[in-house]
């Protein structure tokens, strides 16, 4: 009495687990289903992380590249919602850091389109995919 057990995972994998063990399925009969993030959710989260990190607001062109990149990424096997969005943001920061390394101190804290494009190239190629042109 008073014990709560939480199992979390992706819907397909959870259903496979319960299918393999009928007794387990009968013991877990309350479910919360969280829908996958939309492309707009992904872009909004990157924009929020950029602003929180003190970067200037991302341009409409940058947001367009994010939309295109997430459109491709979401379709790949293993899409991990927020975890992948954070991974893309971290890759954007790495690409930006490489770009500005030799530039003068005091540079505006802004992300450029090339930072985002290169980040998606990296993320997509790590998944064995080429970026859609």
UniProtKB/TrEMBL annotation:
Record keywords: ATP-binding, Nucleotide-binding
The record's section on InterPro entries has:
CbxX/CfxQ, CbxX/CfxQ_RuBisCO_ESX, P-loop_NTPase
MF annotations from Gene Ontology: ATP binding; ATP hydrolysis activity
Please identify the protein, giving its name as recorded.
Uncharacterized protein
């Amino acid at each position: 009495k008073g014990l709560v057990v939480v199992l979390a995972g992706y819907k397909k994998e959870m259903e496979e687990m319960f299918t393999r063990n009928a007794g387990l399925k009968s013991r877990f009969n309350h479910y919360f289903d969280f829908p996958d993030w939309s492309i707009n959710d992904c872009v909004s989260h990157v924009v929020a992380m950029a602003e929180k990190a003190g970067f200037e607001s991302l341009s409409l062109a940058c947001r367009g590249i994010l939309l295109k990149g997430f459109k491709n990424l979401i379709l790949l096997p293993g899409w991990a919602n927020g975890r992948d969005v954070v991974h893309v943001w971290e890759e954007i920061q790495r690409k930006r850091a490489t770009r500005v390394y030799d530039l003068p101190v005091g540079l505006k804290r802004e992300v450029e389109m090339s930072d985002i494009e290169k980040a998606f190239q990296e993320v997509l190629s790590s998944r064995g995919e080429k970026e859609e042109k």
